[in-house]
């Protein structure tokens, strides 16, 4: 019998790594797709407006609205054009920020978003995914619309975060130290979602954790491993998204959440996600949730800084695998465009009343 000697190192290292594919550095992608100085001003302006709303220096209502996930940049670009018109029309009452979500956290398995798998077929061409994502983000920033993403992978922010005005740490990662550290160093306001089981205290812990400086290993702009020292993020806030089989957008839920924030000596402000656990993932329920929230806003609830809506060109959702309907979500069901416009109008009326009540 022939004995093959395996080098020691190969017996212990990378036993479950099937392939290692080179990836361009963040610096290289930025060089290829730069944020030019006019776009730079748009991003800074978008972030400042979001911060002003969160800190009650601007009485408008923040609305983070757009597809559950981007799978087709052409449809997302068309959506951005339509949304920009509404953002201008309703700008006195609403600060509209577009959801441009490229990273999807899955409960078990499923498509993990356009950065992870741009061909939608499991081939996992992350380099192409990052390139498409950055290109689309730049296009939307060029239109003058502030952008929102969920930050899921701790490496991807170096590639795209310079284009983002509002970020989320999702329900499935809000308890993770890695994500709290990441949020402490991100340059824009970050919403911390309540956990999928409905736990709000976990999100409040995350707000407190991300507010202070951290030191942790990561990569720098050139892609080199580095020890990152952060300053802490003062603009994190709670996002109520329902969970544990029940919604948490009612006036009573809002007042208990604000009380928890007060007890933790945190600013009493929050965003309500009208989708996910608050709609039971039923897009037809989102307008009902939004109307309830609009009612609270109109009555003068200043603790509600913003709302989140999942919306795309065509209502509902579809599965990947067959022929795809243009402009329809391939993850959670979204409101269609016409309904979205109606909901935005009702939210604007509510925000207008709140301002009038306060004056
Ligand atoms: O927002 C999208 C989904 O709710 C999230 O990615 C989880 O989806 P899943 O439970 O279908 O995996
Ligand atoms: C995944 C999302 O939400 P959550 O983390 O609340 O499930 C999302 O907003 O796309």
What does this structure look like?
One of its GO terms (molecular function) is 3-deoxy-7-phosphoheptulonate synthase activity. Its EC number is 2.5.1.54. Stereospecific condensation of phosphoenolpyruvate (PEP) and D-erythrose-4-phosphate (E4P) giving rise to 3-deoxy-D-arabino-heptulosonate-7-phosphate (DAHP). It catalyses: D-erythrose 4-phosphate + phosphoenolpyruvate + H2O = 7-phospho-2-dehydro-3-deoxy-D-arabino-heptonate + phosphate. The protein has about 350 residues and is α/β, with parallel strands linked by helices. It has a single domain, classed as Aldolase class I (TIM Barrel, Alpha-Beta Barrel), CATH 3.20.20. About 40% of the residues lie in helices and about 15% in strands. The protein has helices at about 10, 25-30, 35-55, 75-90, 125-140, 155-160, 175-185, 200-210, 250-265, 285-300, 335-359; strands at about 60-65, 95-100, 145-150, 165-170, 190-195, 215-220, 225-230, 235-240, 270-275, 305-310. The strands form two sheets. The chain has an eight-stranded parallel beta barrel with strand order 1-2-3-4-5-8-9-10, surrounded by eight helices. Strands 6-7 form a two-stranded antiparallel ribbon. Helix 7 (about 175-185) crosses helix 8 (about 200-210) and helix 10 (about 285-300) runs parallel beside helix 11. The longest helix has 22 residues, at about 335-359. It is globular and about 85 Å long. The mean pLDDT is about 95. The structure holds erythose-4-phosphate and phosphoenolpyruvate (PEP).
